[in-house]
Structure formats: structure tokens, C-alpha cells
Amino acid sequence: MMKTIKSLFLCVLTLAAASCGRPQQASTTGTTPAVERRVDALLSRMTLAEKIGQMNQVSAGSDVSNYSDAVRKGQIGSILNEVDPVRINEFQRIAVEESRLGIPLLVGRDVIHGFHTVFPIPLGLAATFDPALVEEGARVASVEASAQGIRWTFSPMLDIARDPRWGRIAEGSGEDPYLDARMGEAMVRGYQGTLQDSTTMAACIKHFVGYGAAEGGRDYNSTFLSERQLRNVYLPPFEAAVRAGALTLMTSFNDNDGIPSTGNRFILKDILRDEWGFDGMVVTDWNSMGEMISHGYGADRKEVAREALEAGVDMDMMTYGFISHLEELVRSGAVRESAIDAAVRNILRTKVLLGLFEHPYVDAAAAEAVQYAPEHLDAARRTAEESAILLKNTGVLPLDAARTGRILVTGPMADAPHDQLGTWAFDGQKQHTITPLAALRERFPGRVDYVPGLRFSREKKSHFDEVVAAARRADVVLVFLGEEAILSGEAHSLADLNLIGSQSELLAALRSAGKPVIATVMAGRPLTIERDLPNCDALLYAFHPGTMGGPALTNLIFGDATPSGKTPITFLRTVGQAPMYYAHNMTGRPYNGETLLDGIEAEAGQTSLGNTSYYLDYGAYPLFPFGYGLSYTEFAYSDLALDAASYRRDGVIRVSFTLSNTGRRAGTEVWQLYVRDLVGSLTRPVKELRRFGRETLEPGESRRVELELPVSELAFWGAERKKQVEPGDFQLWVAGDSASGEPLAFKVE
Ligand code: NOJ
To answer: Which residues are identified as catalytic?
Structure first.
């Protein structure tokens, strides 16, 4: 008897009743017995119809009356796409004051990289390698959005993306699970803060899982990821974000190996709930339950509603599957009411943890005041500065403001206030954007000539006489190229990744004027810019930089800020190389050319180029490797040392190295630590990122950097179907990118 009481108590303490009977795990959402009692008390008063109502999410129309009756009847648990604080308050008033149980609505929105103040797109955020700054940006987004009544954001997107054709590569942190995990945790912390504070939002980690591996980079396509790939590459960022306390998770559109995610019990129950102990809420993607019918995984909406519930979905976004069929399914015995109770507990828990019952309303009159606050704009500018990557510099940058006379500003992205915001910036208002042209005109009154050359990126043109004449009159040419916001993001995949339209021709024409040409590319993905590099003296790559892109780029070009961004994704030479990523497995016939990764494959004893893994026309290597980026100064790495030659599996590797600024300007270097497990129960990646950091050094300054790497972080999901460290030989690098440095060897016993 005593034993039963004790285990019951533990069950309440650890998490929702949903997890009782499973191995005890700490709550991932931080729920408490008091929260659980409140949830249970509410649940016990709910009718079946009211429970199912909580599981229904709809997109608000422009008119509250469209849904007011349904909210009043308790048929809606959440709305998305309503941002007007007055209308949100009205929705909440109906829910709280006119529905039988007074349960507030959860109001969601895609606040992806800022709300009104737009930060660089997530791929650009990842290029900062600065989780603290990314957390600050997420906090800004929360403050602005929550002021209008939005308490749930569908962010961060944690999909690993290794194919730049996929338009949604813009929305994530790129190709690397470790970087993605750190960015995801930072965003979760930034959005959620201490939750009860009503300036926070619940995060929604998405899309679970594998969505970024869409075949051919075509959005919504099938994926075929093995369990090992899932566990070693695609799942770790999600697990990290769950451990960071993410309150909600969204399923993905793709089917993996034939099973649509929204009906995939293995990932939603076995892994997410049972292995990780997630006690937050799972929502479908928009109609992804309904799309199981198109996938051919269910015959009708009733069938897919049952499949989704059984797989572990709590809330239906826009299929109307739960609201239309669950009651009938329970009555017929096809679905147990206990499954519905478990889902509703997860939803109510989220609402309680957010403090929605205490603070359902916002002060609509005050909402305006926090939008575009000076400190928000300042954070957005700093982030855009850290996010830009210097890919080429013959020494022309930074320009000397005092000595630069006439400046020609040209290119389709020079004055594109909407497009520099990037994808998923619904609420960013272009009248608040500062474009490069605006920033440059303000900084250099009377010295800027603006001739667009091309009015938009897709424009086709063969003559550039006017702009070339203007270039001849100028002292320097600043050309802003790239792709408009609409060319990346959801459903915007591309098969050709060269600069679109006649942009390469424009650049070549400008080159012919004989003046220094500084190119800036603003884009949602790494474009194939190899053919453009010879036509400029310097090239800055700014993944769509957001509201403050203009001032940030101006500061970088004129040396008030120094570039420190690094590529969060491999830059390809040509689209035919996709997918290509640094952490690829060692092949049986590694390429051994004179290339960027020289030395790594050489040790495997391969010397001949014949019959190895490369393209006859494009070789084996990308244009720029992962982690690459120049500064206005140079950095040298020396004296890499480990505190031992051999470690126990429960040990800690103490790593130190000296970083020196050997150039003539102050600068910040993003150093990266990579490891390689030389022989495993499975073939292993040639390198894997395990730590990174930013160090700011004055010219001539050196710093000894010391860090600890627990051996447990070398673990992977191996042949024994569990995650563990396999003893043997390892290598470790610390360098400025994934293709540099000399390794140190060590052993794990
Ligand atoms: C579909 C997208 O895939 C998802 O990322 C987004 O959050 C939802 N629509 C809601 O807008």
C-alpha cells in the first residue's frame, strides 16, 4: 500500500498523468504538482465536447464574429493569425467570460525572426554563432508580440537542411545539429523566459521531424531517413530544445519512409514522450492531419483524426478533424476518452504555465509603444552586423569614409525594404526598414548616386550603359544583389541557385568600369556565387538581414563594425553538388585532391584521384566550407593541447589553444572545435562540431582559451542501437572553419 502511495505521489510530481506507468523522468516543461492539480480539476469539469474543443485550432478571419459563437461554446482552444490586440482581447473576453468554463484561448502566430522589429532570417541568426545574441533577439520578439496578445510562436524551426534548393533552409540554422541545437535552446530561452511573466511566448519547436531532408529539396517531399540518421543528425536539436523547456512541438508535413509525421507514433510517442519525457503540447502543422489523406495514409478525415490522436497529436491546426470526428470516435469505442484527456492535459498545462488564466488580456492601448523600441532596433542592428559573412576581400574593405568620394549604389536589393526582411516576416512593416540606400544617403549626404541597374532580381537585361557610366564617375561601387523574400521560404524551392535574372551580368558590367566593386548578396539561402567572385573586390553575404540591414551593412563596409559571421551552411560551387555538407561520412574511396580538406582524407592512405568520390567537372569540395568567414584582421591558432592522451568514458577532455590577432585591426573570431571518431561500429562523419565560441582581440593580442568537453559528448547512436561513446581513437581540431587546422589525437578507453 505504502509503495502504491509513494509511486502515485512520484507520478504527480514528475509530470502529467500521461506519463504515469513509464520510467520516471523530470518534467520537461517545469510543471508542478500545483499546476497538475489545477489542470486535473478543470479537466474533471469538462464535457467530452469541451475537451475536444480545446484540441481545435483555427485561423482567425478578419472578423471576430466568424468564430465568436464557436469560442463561446468552447469549440476552439487556440487561434492563429490574429494580431490585432483589440480583436484578441475580444476573443479572450468571449472565451473567459462567456464560455462555460472560462478557459482562455492560446493565441499563436509565426513570429519567426522578430515580430515588428525584424531580425535576420534564422539562417542569418545561425551565422552569428552567438546564442546569447540570438536569445536577446527572441526576447525582443516576445516583448513585441506578447504586447499585442500573442503568447505562442511557431518557432524555432529546427529542421536540419543540407540542400539549399529547399526554400525553407532560410528558416533554420543550416546543416549542423550542434549549431542548430544551441540556436534552438537560445530561442526557447528567449521566447519563454520565466513564462508566468506575460511578456513571454511559448516556443513551438518544428517540424518534427526530418522535413528538411525533402527529396530533391522540393518542399513537402518525402524523406527516407534511417533511424540512425534521425537519431544522430535530425533529432538531437529537438531533444536539446525539449530539455531547454520548449512548451510545444509541431509535426511536419513530410512522410518519412512512408509514414507521415502527423501519424507517426514512433517519433511522437516512443521517442518524444517515452524516451525524452516531453510533457508539453503537440500541434499538427497546417492541415497536416488532412494531408494524410493526400498522402494516401488514411481514407478520410475521420480515419486520419484517429491516426493522429493515436500517434500522439494534441491539437489540430486547421484540419477540423478532431472537432468533427473525435466525439463520434469515442462514442463508437474506436478511440478511448483517456487519450483525449491526455491531450487536453497537455493543452491546459501550457495555458496554465503561460499564466493565461491570470492574464488573458493585454493593454491594447499600450501595445504600440513597445514596437520598434530603440533598444529593439539596436539589437536587430547588432545582430545583422554579426550575421553578415565576409567571403572575399582583396583588402579594399573596410572603406575609409573620409577618403571615399562619390559612391554609386546599385543592384536590385539596394533599396528593397520589404525584401530585405526575408521570408516569414508578416508583421515587419517595410516603412520601418532601413535599406542600404537609405542608410548610405543618411551617412553620406550628397555623395551617393543611385542607379538600380536592375529593378528586381529576376529582371533580364543585356545593356547596362547607364549604370556603367555612373560607375565610371564614382570612386566606389556598392552593389546589392541577391533574391527577394519570395524566392525562399515555404513552398519556394529553386532548382537553379545562381544569381537570378541578369544580376551576374550587371556585376560583370560594373567590373568593366574599373572602379572598386563591393558586392553584398542578400538572400534566403547560400547561392552559387562562384562565377561572380572574380567580378568584385569584396563580397559580403547577408542572409536577409531584417529591419536594420542597411545601417548594419553600412557599418561593416565602412569599418565601424568588423565582420565576424561564419557560414552556417556549406556554400556550393554549383547546384549539382547538392547535398554537400562538411559532416559527411567517410567513404571507402575518399578523394585526395589538393583541396580545402587536404590532409583529412590523406591519412586514410588514398593517393589516387581515380575511382574516388568526386565530380569530374566540379571536384569534391564546395566553394566555401561550413564555418567559414573572413574578418578585417587575421587570426592564428597555436599550441592546441589536451590535458591527457587518453580518457575514460565518464571523463572530461580539457582543451586549450592560443588564439592571436595577427592583423592590424581589432576583430572577433568564431573558433570551432571539431572531433572525429576514427573507427566506430558504424562509419562516422569526417568531422563533427562540438564547441564554438567568439573571442574579441585587439591587434597583436593573444589569448589562451580553455574549455571542457565531457567525453559523453562523443556519444552516437551506433550499431548496438543505443547512444554511447565507443572506445577507440579520436581526433580533435580547433580552427576558424571546418576545413582548416591540424588535428590532435586522443583515445577513449
Ligand atoms: C505551415 C508551416 O509549415 C509552419 O511552419 C507554420 O508555423 C504554419 N503553417 C502556421 O502558419
So the answer is: 285
**Domain assignment of residue 740, given as a range:** 635-748
**How crowded is the C-beta side of 659, counted as CA atoms within 13 Å?**
24
CA distances 159 to 221, 222, 237, 250, Å, are 14, 14, 8, 11
What pLDDT digit, counting tens, does each position of 615-643 carry? 888 989 999 999 999 999 999 999 999 99
Binned at pLDDT 50, 70 and 90, residue 24 comes out as: low
How far apart, in Å, are the Cα atoms of 251 and each of 191, 239, 305?
Answer: 20, 14, 14
- For a ligand 1 pocket test, name from 106, 206, 492 the mutation site with the most ligand atoms within 8 angstroms of its C-beta: 206
* Residue 479: cis peptide before it, omega within 30 degrees of 0: no
* Beta bridge partners of residue 744, listed in sequence order: 732
**Of the candidates 20, 47, 95, 52, which has an alpha carbon nearest to the alpha carbon of residue 313?**
52
Decide if 675 is inside a domain.
yes
Does the reported pTM lie above 0.85? yes
Helix, strand or coil for residue 31? Answer: coil
Backbone conformation region of residue 660, classed left if phi is above 0, alpha if psi is from -120 to 50, else beta: beta
Number of domains the chain is built from = 1
Residue ranges lining ligand 1, Cβ < 6 Å: 110, 154, 206, 285-286, 490
Please state whether the peptide bond connecting residue 156 to the residue before it is cis, i.e. omega within 30 degrees of 0. yes
How many beta carbons lie within 10 A of that of residue 723, not counting itself? 13
Residue 737 lies in a domain: yes
pLDDT for residue 21: 40
If you measure from the C-alpha of residue 318 to the centroid of ligand 1, how many angstroms do you get, rounded to a whole number?
11
Determine, yes or no, domain membership for 127. Answer: no
